[in-house]
Design goal:
By secondary structure, the chain is an alpha+beta fold. It contains 20 helices and 19 strands. Helix content is 37%, strand content 17%. The strands form seven sheets. The protein has a five-stranded mixed sheet with strand order 10-9-13-14-15, with helices on one face. A four-stranded mixed sheet has the order 1-2-4-3, with helices on both faces. Helix 10 runs antiparallel to helix 11, helix 10 runs antiparallel to helix 12 and helix 18 packs across helix 20. The two termini are 29 Å apart.
Length: 553
Amino acid sequence: MALTNPPRIADPETLRRLVEWLNALEGERLEFKEAKNRYDFTELTHYLCALANEGGGRVLLGVTDKRPRRVVGSSAFPQPERLRAGLLEKLPVQIQVDEVLHESGRVVVITIAGRPIGSPLQVDDRFWCRQGDRLTTMSAQRLREVLAETGRDFSADVCSGAAVSDLDLEAVEQFRRRWIDKSGNQALANLPVAQLLRDAELLDGDRPTYAAMVLFGGRAAMGRHLGQAEVVFEYRSSEAAGPAQQRKEYRQGFFSFYEDLWQTINLRNDLQHYQEGLFVLDVPTFSERAVREAILNAVSHRDYQLAGSVFVRQYSRRLVIESPGGWPYGVTAENVLDQQSPRNRRIAEALARCGLVERAGQGMNLMFEHSIRQGKRRPDFAGTDPWHVVVTLHGEVRDARLLRFLERVGREADFVLGVHDLMLLDAIHEDLPIPDVRRGELLRLMKLGIIESIGRGKGARYLLARRFYASIGEQGVYTRKRGLDGPVNRQLLLQHLRAVGEAGCKMRELQQVLPAISRHQIKALLLALVRDGLVRLEGSRRASRWFAQKELS
């Protein structure tokens, strides 16, 4: 049965914030639109793009834009999750869509995060911003200021002494084919090589940039001009010191070895097989998408002014990628999903042009998303220091049942779980702490029936919904988790038996409810409930089941 998302009367805190927004000045962070019946999706993306370019903010639908503002209600975008999915296709930053039922009508609140440092956002080929009450596009001067936020782009500098003849033409042709496929622009097929590279901003006149060398440089030329732009692959069957079982050194342009590197990794990429009833799942140890994104990130964001190679080390159940240079300006392990800052902009732009990077600045997000969706540990950055970034992709599937649950929930409710949703669900499933900055997103997952709360306020705890535990045959675990702050053991047993109804329970399920006490002690509690007329036992020995007596109305 599909999930339903009925509008909700706002909680007191949300109502308080709504009143604050209504009384605020309409400026850089707030936009109000009446949108009583509908609102143009394209126009909405333009306004959100402008807000993101100005640091982030909110658009409120169902509110008059003239002061004093009033809630008039809106029927636009009746499926908030579908709206969010559509916006994420256009705008690669964190977006949240909330539906609030005010006493005067429904208000749709769309919140968008600010753009990454040094990365202006564009929609429909325009960098939107606002000028007073109207939308416009960034001036050339403002665009240059944004692009300069991360400092000088080394990859855009001319590679002294290099010439077009130093480039591998087959690698350039691979780039051309990918660019045509991505853009649909067949005219690119007839451009001379030099013009193609100038159009991609990889040549300065007739002189290759460092970006051109990193992407297309021939082996001999790379040795002369950019020897540090090397990627080293190692396969190690164990953690023991000593020589690797396989080692490959790639000292040429990225397009010359990109496919070979993935194929080398994939040779030892075994499938992990899971079957649960009719549900059959084969999960590769290393997700191709996550691995490719990790490699692309290393090549795009390493510091090419430092000596040292990018190392890709493959073990049986993990892949470690180490690249020279610490985090780019403004980026940390804690904010890496929200705050991308490209160190080599010209390289990143070229990879985006040809479709190797789907959406600029989203590589880390995709790595995390694919890992969690496959039931694996999220990537981690252990070993990162001011001189190196180290990312580890874990290959072991921890819980295929969670993977199955997420697939089914998304299918039933017809919504898209974003990377931050998946991070929260993973944290709840693994009993990890939830960052304070993410707690506001929990309400949305509760509305969707994916998680439940225990308690209120800052002391509230969260767990996956009852139907997750029912789907994996661990309803007893659910009852135990719900009851940690509840009544005594006797009441926990009764609560669980009433919840399962006429299905009843075997003793082993009741032991899941109270794992800390013995089978003998649980049976003593059950017999006491029988004497009180609250529980009955049917069957004998292994076939016996316990049932709650029907409550008198």
